[in-house]
Design brief:
mainly beta, elongated, 5-stranded antiparallel sheet
Length: 214
């Protein structure tokens, strides 16, 4: 009987000791952070070139001599690498206007751009220069615009994937890939400017801005 009571007493004492054990807590301080990157990279690997052209015009029969051609000649440079398309100038019914003509000697090449470090699988917005804002002139006479360049995004832009696959731009497929990258090529249409006469040999150029944003 004594041994049994002694066992019970020992069990109760052990239980009481377990119930009065002290729990210890350890604190640690950490930091929450985020990096905001709204900027991305947009680089140009090639300028827009309309190649080498023969450009001429004929004066109309107007008196005094006309100061503008009729429907000016133009050449479209596709962004997909296909051949340029020339539209010759034409005079009005009276023949009073001059007529400009273009012949392709060497094919042009589209501008090429690359986007990197943007958000993954994200649609971006491409903004091209408005009509009437891009003019080409000779370095010898910057005051006289000889050619005008116009752009139509749905016709003049080709999207280039990382594997080289090319897709025509359609307004909604300007989307980065899983690495946040996107490439594209830009063509356009070169038109003889109003009042442009006497096309001297040499280079004609003009700067313009292409914008990409979220």
């Amino acid at each position: 009987m004594f041994k049994r009571n002694h066992l019970y007493t020992s069990l109760i004492a052990a239980t009481m000791l377990a119930g009065t054990s002290v729990a210890y807590a350890v604190d640690v301080t950490t930091t929450a952070s985020v990096t905001v990157q709204n900027a991305f990279e947009l680089t140009k690997s090639a300028d827009l070139s309309f190649g080498t052209l023969r450009v001429t015009n004929t004066l109309g029969t107007g008196t005094p001599a006309p100061t503008a051609v009729g429907a000016a000649a133009s050449v479209n440079l596709p962004s997909d690498g296909t051949a340029m398309v020339v539209t010759q100038g034409s005079s009005d019914a009276s023949g009073a206007d001059g007529v400009s003509q273009i012949s392709v000697i060497t094919e042009g090449t589209p501008a090429q751009f690359a986007i990197a470090n943007a958000a993954q699988n994200t649609r971006l917005t491409l903004t091209l220069p408005a009509d009437g804002t891009v003019a080409l002139s000779s370095p010898l006479d910057r005051a006289t615009d000889i050619f005008e360049v116009t752009f139509v995004a749905n016709e003049d832009v080709t999207i280039v994937a990382a594997d080289g696959t090319e897709t025509p731009f359609n307004g909604i497929n300007f989307v980065t890939d899983a690495t946040g990258a996107l490439g594209f090529k830009l063509g356009g249409t070169l038109t003889v400017a109003d009042d442009a006469f006497g096309f001297g040999d040499g280079d004609y150029d003009g700067d313009f801005t292409v914008s990409v944003n979220y």
